[in-house]
């Protein structure tokens, strides 16, 4: 069990690590040859040019202004200067609201920490319960535990203080959450009302189009919306299964990169041809000329792409029963997206289309009827992943202790018994071991979300974030508290009567705070500081810049600014909310460490959002209801755990007064859900009509159909220079007016020729028919 000295050593190591990271970052960001890595967002916006283009030769690579190195922390106040509205215009609402999660943590826990240290710490400290327990019952404890509720004797009237504080913490948390929910909802509505025109504002995704023997999917979609939305339907784009084609295009891109690399290498030294081996990693196999080999491979795959593209265009089986349908106004799109289209609720299902950047194209090819089965399979798989992961995590953490190391490696016993090394191991190693063990988890959860069939990147990230949160709650929190407490007190269990075991667990649960303190310092201090270095993007940029970059466009593509990573960042934040709310009335010692995390993370990620990250999509803060719900869940969990803890302390008169807290918290959540959540899942028709009216007045001659015509064409069909036939077809379809005849007798009510179809057909490849 970590002592106060162990925590101090761990704090020193992590503070020193963070300080070293900041110094390295300060030096690297000032060098001209790193400018595109640490200021990539400004380059992508075209607002910054490379300092390596001018000046003396040495100054193009190294910053010789030594005065700039003296202000190595100057980036911190600079990150706080940009006003919030300007930051929304610069980075989008998603990024700004993501930052507000850290700010929410500061607003909730700063008053709670002050109140807890002013009231609860003196109440806990002025007892000798743990000292007596150590002498009489051999229960282990440390100085930190004397600041917790464990140090209060059973039946004590002092527990009323913790109950009053629990009510105060709950009321304050709910108040801050409500005000923040209201603020974010207003920000979202204002952002949607003021943002520029986007294709998703006029488009809905229609899924589970029923099969028809007489008409193609494209014709069926057109006729359905001509009949049921005759005054508002504009055009549509059916969904095709181009996954194989996309794989071939991606493979060609990789082969082309290798060809470019060897051509550039040969151009620098053409004294002899470059030879490579075709075996594994180029270590063995037939030796061939690199340029000739990759030229042949690129030509070969180009032919495969051309064949596959024609199959996708001409094969009806490649057309999925889904379509992106666009309307003349936002109002009409809102009506369609938020209403049931037919009496059969399982057909013609409509939802808001993701913005084109947000579409996850591979999953559009998944049949809608298989989604339920896929999600059931993933629910079962996630259950086993979560609960079976407890075993290896417990094993790894058992090795990350003094006893575990001495047992696994007896020859290290002399080293680990050293006083300083003991402090390092107990105060640092458990946290770093757990963090390293979970390093591959986000990738696994994202694969599971993709298998479930979500059609947008934002929904994939939100589902992954939800599962990551559940995993953290079960494996990082519950497993660490319950199993850790049981194993640490095992010797006490074996030497006392069974009716004393619940008491020992009640005393031991708050003792696990020392482990979470070390984890917060490793993950929340040093981990956040390490984020700003961006070592992987830095290394990859210089490798690509050295071996692949030939033009300015290549140099832009070599930049990898990344994004906020909602699927990994938000669950980590929620773990700190959970720890803070659980341990606030139990062990207030943990709260200052959490406050440092929120403050440091807010500054670091604000800097990254301003200068580096390039968000992949914009959902207008659609994730906030999830954030709010998880904080509420953490609050309820903290209340239930406090009730259980006081029950083990025989606070029979005080504990029942906590029963009202979860009930009131759930009632508060239902109120917020009904009052504010509709702004995140529905688009008010009034707002849509106002925006349409303003746009029609400002741009009466807007060619909306031309704007939406190719917005939702699959990316593999956009801008491919190798397929002139497709480009010719595109031009032909845009210029000609083609009528789609009605083939079924039941479609006699369809306008023929329809006013819409007669002007420009929305039902042919790449302009509304089968792609």
From TrEMBL:
Location of the CSC1/OSCA1-like 7TM region domain: 374-646
Pfam families (UniProt xref): PHM7_cyt, RSN1_7TM, RSN1_TM
Transmembrane segments: 12-30, 101-120, 159-178, 376-395, 428-447, 468-487, 516-535, 575-605, 653-671
CSC1/OSCA1-like N-terminal transmembrane domain residues: 7-180
Region span, Disordered: 740-771
Keyword terms of this UniProt record: Calcium, Ion channel, Ion transport, Membrane, Transmembrane, Transmembrane helix, Transport
Keyword Nucleotide-binding in annotation: no
Location of the protein in the cell: Membrane
Ranges where the CSC1/OSCA1-like cytosolic domain occurs: 201-363
Residue ranges, compositional bias (Polar residues): 748-764
GO CC annotations, alphabetized: plasma membrane
Topological category with respect to the lipid bilayer: Multi-pass membrane protein
InterPro entries, alphabetized: Csc1-like, CSC1/OSCA1-like_7TM, CSC1/OSCA1-like_cyt, CSC1/OSCA1-like_N
GO molecular function, one term: calcium-activated cation channel activity
Family: Belongs to the CSC1 (TC 1.A.17) family.
Protein name: Calcium permeable stress-gated cation channel 1
Species of origin: Thlaspi arvense
Lineage, top ranks: Eukaryota, Viridiplantae, Streptophyta, Embryophyta, Tracheophyta
């Amino acid at each position: 069990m970590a002592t106060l000295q162990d925590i101090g050593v761990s704090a020193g190591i992590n503070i020193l690590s963070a300080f070293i990271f900041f110094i390295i970052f300060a030096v690297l960001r000032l060098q001209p040859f790193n400018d595109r890595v640490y200021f990539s967002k400004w380059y992508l916006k075209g607002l910054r040019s490379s300092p390596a283009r001018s000046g003396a030769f040495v100054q193009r690579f190294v910053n010789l202004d030594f005065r700039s190195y003296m202000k190595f922390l100057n980036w911190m106040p600079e990150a706080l200067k940009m006003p919030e509205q300007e930051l929304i215009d610069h980075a989008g609402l998603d990024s700004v609201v993501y930052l507000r999660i850290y700010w929410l943590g500061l607003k909730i826990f700063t008053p709670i920490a002050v109140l807890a240290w002013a009231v609860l710490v003196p109440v806990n400290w002025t007892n000798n319960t743990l000292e007596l327990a150590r002498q009489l019952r051999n229960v282990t404890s440390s100085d930190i535990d004397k600041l917790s509720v464990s140090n209060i004797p059973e039946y004590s009237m002092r527990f009323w203080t913790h109950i009053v504080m629990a009510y105060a913490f709950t009321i304050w948390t709910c108040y801050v959450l409500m005000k923040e929910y209201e603020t974010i909802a207003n920000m979202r509505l204002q952002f949607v009302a003021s943002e520029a025109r986007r294709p998703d504002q006029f488009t809905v995704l229609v899924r589970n189009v029923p099969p028809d023997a007489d008409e193609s999917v494209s014709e069926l979609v057109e006729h359905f919306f001509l009949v049921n939305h005759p005054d508002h339907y504009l055009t549509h784009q059916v969904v095709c299964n181009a996954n194989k084609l996309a794989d071939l295009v991606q493979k060609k891109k990789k082969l082309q990169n290798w060809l470019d690399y060897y051509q550039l290498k040969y151009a620098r030294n053409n004294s002899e041809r470059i030879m490579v081996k075709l075996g594994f990693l180029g270590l063995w196999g037939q030796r061939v000329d690199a340029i000739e080999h990759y030229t042949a491979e690129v030509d070969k795959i180009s032919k495969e792409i051309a064949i596959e593209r024609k199959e996708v265009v001409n094969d009806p089986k490649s057309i999925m029963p889904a379509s992106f349908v666009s309307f003349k106004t936002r109002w009409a799109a809102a009506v369609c997206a938020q209403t049931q289209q037919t009496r059969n609720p399982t057909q013609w299902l409509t939802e808001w289309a993701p913005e084109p950047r947000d579409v996850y194209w591979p999953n559009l090819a998944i049949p809608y009827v298989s989604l339920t089965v896929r999600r059931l399979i993933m629910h079962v798989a996630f259950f086993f992943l979560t609960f079976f992961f407890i075993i290896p995590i417990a094993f790894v953490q058992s090795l990350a202790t003094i006893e575990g190391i001495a047992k696994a490696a007896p020859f290290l016993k002399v080293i680990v018994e050293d006083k300083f090394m003991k402090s390092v191991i107990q105060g640092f190693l458990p946290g770093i071991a757990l963090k390293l063990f979970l390093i591959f988890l986000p990738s696994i959860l994202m694969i599971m979300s993709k298998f479930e069939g979500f059609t947008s990147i934002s929904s994939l990230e939100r589902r992954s974030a939800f599962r990551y949160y559940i995993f953290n709650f079960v494996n990082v929190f519950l497993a660490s508290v319950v199993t850790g407490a049981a194993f640490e007190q095992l010797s006490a269990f074996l030497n006392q009567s069974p009716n004393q075991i619940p008491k020992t667990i009640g005393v031991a649960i708050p003792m696990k705070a020392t482990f979470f303190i070390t984890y917060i310092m490793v993950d929340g201090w040093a981990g956040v500081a390490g984020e700003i270095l961006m070592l992987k993007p830095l290394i990859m940029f210089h490798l690509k810049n050295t071996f692949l970059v030939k033009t300015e466009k290549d140099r832009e593509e070599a930049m990898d600014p990344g994004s906020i990573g909602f699927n990994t960042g938000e669950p980590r934040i929620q773990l700190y909310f959970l720890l803070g709310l659980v341990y606030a009335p139990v062990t207030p010692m943990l709260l200052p460490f959490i406050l440092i995390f929120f403050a440091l993370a807010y500054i670091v990620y604000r800097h990254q959002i301003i200068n580096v990250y390039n968000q992949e999509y914009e959902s207008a803060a659609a994730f906030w209801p999830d954030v709010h719900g998880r904080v509420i869940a953490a609050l309820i969990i903290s209340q239930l755990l406090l009730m259980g803890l006081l029950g083990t302390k025989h606070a029979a008169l005080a504990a029942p007064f906590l029963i009202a807290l979860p009930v009131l918290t759930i009632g508060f959540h239902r109120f917020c859900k009904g009052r504010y959540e509709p702004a995140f899942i529905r688009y008010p028709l009034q707002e849509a009509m106002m925006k349409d009216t303003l746009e029609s007045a400002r741009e009466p001659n807007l060619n909306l159909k031309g704007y939406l015509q190719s917005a939702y064409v699959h990316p593999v069909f956009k801008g491919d220079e190798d397929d002139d036939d497709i480009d010719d077809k595109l031009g032909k379809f845009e210029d000609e007016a083609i009528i789609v005849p009605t083939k079924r007798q039941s479609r006699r009510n369809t306008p023929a020729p329809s006013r819409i179809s007669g002007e420009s057909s929305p039902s042919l490849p790449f302009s509304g028919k089968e792609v």
